[in-house]
Amino acid sequence: MATPADPEYRARLAALSERYAATVPGTMAQITNALAACKATAGDPPPEPELRRLHELLHGVAGSAGTFGFGMLGQQARRIEHMVRGVLTEHTGWSAVIPEVEQLLKWAARDAQATDYE
């Protein structure tokens, strides 16, 4: 069984991290599109299908990013995912979600693997 100290294990994990890194721009583009779909509607909150899509994308990032060396990205996605879940259940708070998602997208565009969230 491979262990974290095993060089072969580390090499495989590094390769997986590189593959994950290559998917981040596409995932952020999907989040951008989901946010745009939510904003394009006149509702506050947006219709549930659009909001659920945004939630699913954030949930996916929150669940996988940390595993591949994108810890802060995962933490922030999880935080915003919880905000979106609140909008889905309470039907309020949407206006606070928009700038949070926009900030995440700008930050991730600069360096999605950064450890400081600015």
Automatic annotation (TrEMBL):
One of its GO terms (molecular function) is protein kinase activity. Gene3D superfamilies: HPT domain (1.20.120.160). The keyword Transcription does not apply. GO terms for biological process: phosphorelay signal transduction system. InterPro entries: HPT_dom_sf, Sig_transdc_His_kin_Hpt_dom. Residues 18-103 form the HPt domain. Keywords: Two-component regulatory system. The keyword Metal-binding does not apply. It comes from the Bacteria. This is Hpt domain-containing protein. It comes from Duganella vulcania. The lineage of its organism: Bacteria, Pseudomonadati, Pseudomonadota, Betaproteobacteria, Burkholderiales.
